[in-house]
Write a structure and sequence with these properties.
Strand content: under 5%
Radius of gyration: 26 Å
Order of helices and strands: HHHHHHHHHH
Shape: elongated
Number of helices: 10
Number of strands: 0
Helix content: over 70%
Structural class: mainly alpha
């Protein structure tokens, strides 16, 4: 009787150990090289960014509507705003291309330790480049869509321009909601809330601003770039006052 009871207890211990080993194996994190996947993610935005940048030049710069003496002040302001929007979109895509290209080059040139996932790899080695590529690509993409309002307005008149404006506004809001959903899901393991950089596009832009500010400390060229952006508000204010 005692031997039978002992056998039962040993069997239960073996079963418990087996379950513990299985659980530990399931919980164990497999470290792998995710540099290839990371490069692919950067390239997912670099290619469309280059296509959009190439489309902006003929769509909104070369064929930009000229200002005529008969134009009203509002029309002149609209045409100037359309030109600035095109430049804004183009420069955002160029920045996204620069971020992603340099990141892809460094991923190929340097050796990295294995990580649990591509999200961890990006966070550890290319966090600023990844967030910056996303922010600038999305800003350039949405402003590119807004350029579609100008052509119908100037060629076919106010009514068709208003239709285009409503459609562009609807598409932009819908796309932003899709982006917000993707950002809110985070990255890496879905249940891991620590992998969430932000909850929406606005939060992602704020996170990018903080990363950029930290990285720019003590660097001459980024500081000069920020200074030029601030300086641009002086002639912009003059334009607004002239057309007011």
């Amino acid at each position: 009787m005692k031997s039978s009871l002992l056998l039962v207890l040993l069997s239960l211990c073996n079963i418990a150990n087996a379950f513990g080993t299985t659980a530990a194996s399931a919980a164990a994190v497999i470290l792998k090289d995710h540099s290839g996947a990371a490069a692919g993610l950067f390239n997912n935005m670099r290619t469309p960014a280059a296509l959009i940048a190439g489309s902006i030049v003929p769509l909104a710069l070369i064929t930009a509507p000229e200002i005529k003496p008969s134009d009203t002040r509002m029309t002149k302001l609209f045409k100037k705003g359309n030109m600035l929007l095109a430049i804004f979109s183009l420069l955002n895509q160029i920045t996204a291309i620069t971020y992603s290209t340099m990141a892809i080059n460094k991923i190929a040139e340097l050796s990295y330790l294995p990580t649990a996932g591509v999200a961890e790899f990006l966070a550890m080695h290319h966090n600023l480049s990844w967030v910056g590529t996303n922010v600038h690509f999305l800003l350039g993409l949405f402003s590119f869509g807004c350029l579609a309002v100008a052509k119908p307005y100037f060629i076919y008149g106010k009514n068709l321009g208003n239709v285009a404006a409503c459609w562009v506004g609807a598409a932009t809001m819908f796309c932003i909601s899709i982006v917000n959903k993707g950002i809110s899901m985070g990255s890496g393991t879905i249940k891991d809330t620590n992998s969430k950089i932000a909850s929406n596009l606005a939060g992602l832009m704020i996170a990018y601003g903080k990363l950029l500010f930290t990285w720019s400390k003590g660097k001459l060229l980024p500081i000069m770039a920020f200074g030029l952006i601030l300086l641009s508000f002086v002639p912009l204010k003059a334009i607004l006052e002239k057309e007011a």
